[in-house]
Amino acid sequence: MMDKSTTPRLTAEQAARFKRLVAPHLAVLLRTARYLTHHDQQAEDLAQDTMMKAMRAIDRFQEGTDIKAWLMTILRRTHIDTVRSNKHYAHAVSIEQTEIELADLRQDDGGQYDGRWNEPAALLERFGDREVIEALQGLPEDIRWTLLLVDVEQLDHSAAATILEVPVGTIKSRAHRGRAMLRDRLYLWAQERGWVSKQESSHA
Fold it and tell me: Span 12-85: which CATH code?
């Protein structure tokens, strides 16, 4: 995947450290990049750029800290730089436009259609991974990033807050709101497919 002509020169010790700590997470970086870019080639480029930066910075990683969080931080900053430097970046949305103010969200705010789900768990299971990914990709970037880190990659709120450079409370609010938005999107798709009865759909 990496271009040998641009690969940083590492000492044997650095190369061994990179292979041990970073290389096992390539699949995670590529998966996250695909969620963000919606495009395989752009995802590969983003993951590769992230790996290259991690390789150059391998001496700065502190043993005992969360390597996945460290790599996600690099990936996020690389993605932001790419979006801001390339006006024609496919499917990209301005970082400024995707900033969402969630401070006034109540924690009991749920999805618009939550009251209409008779058996939400069973209904959600009918959607394949690709459909859930597509629904996730349709969410605003800040929300999408939060769900990627917290729900997909299973990072704790504190780690996600560090990566996204926001307070932990903001992560909790975004995760809560994002899950509700995701449920709403999937509910509408279920309704379109006839998985939700007209009687059930008519109830507020």
Answer: 1.10.1740.10
Find tokens 């996730």 and name the residue.
136
Residue 5, amino acid: S
Quote the CA–CA distance of 69 and 75 in Å, as a whole number: 10
The domain limits of the chain are 12-85, 95-201
Report the run of H or E that residue 75 belongs to, with start and end. helix 67-85
CATH match of 95-201 with 3.90.1010.10: no
Residue-wise pLDDT tens digits, 129-149: 778 888 888 888 899 999 999
Q: If DSSP states are collapsed to H, E and C, what string results for the chain?
A: CCCCCCCCCCCHHHHHHHHHHCHHHHHHHHHHHHHHHCCHHHHHHHHHHHHHHHHHCHHHCCCCCCHHHHHHHHHHHHHHHHHHHCCCCCCCCCHHHHCCCCCCCCCCCCCCCHHHCCCHHHHHCCCCHHHHHHHHHCCCHHHHHHHHHHHHCCCCHHHHHHHHCCCHHHHHHHHHHHHHHHHHHHHHHHHHCCCCCHHHHCCC
Q: Model-level pTM greater than 0.90?
A: no
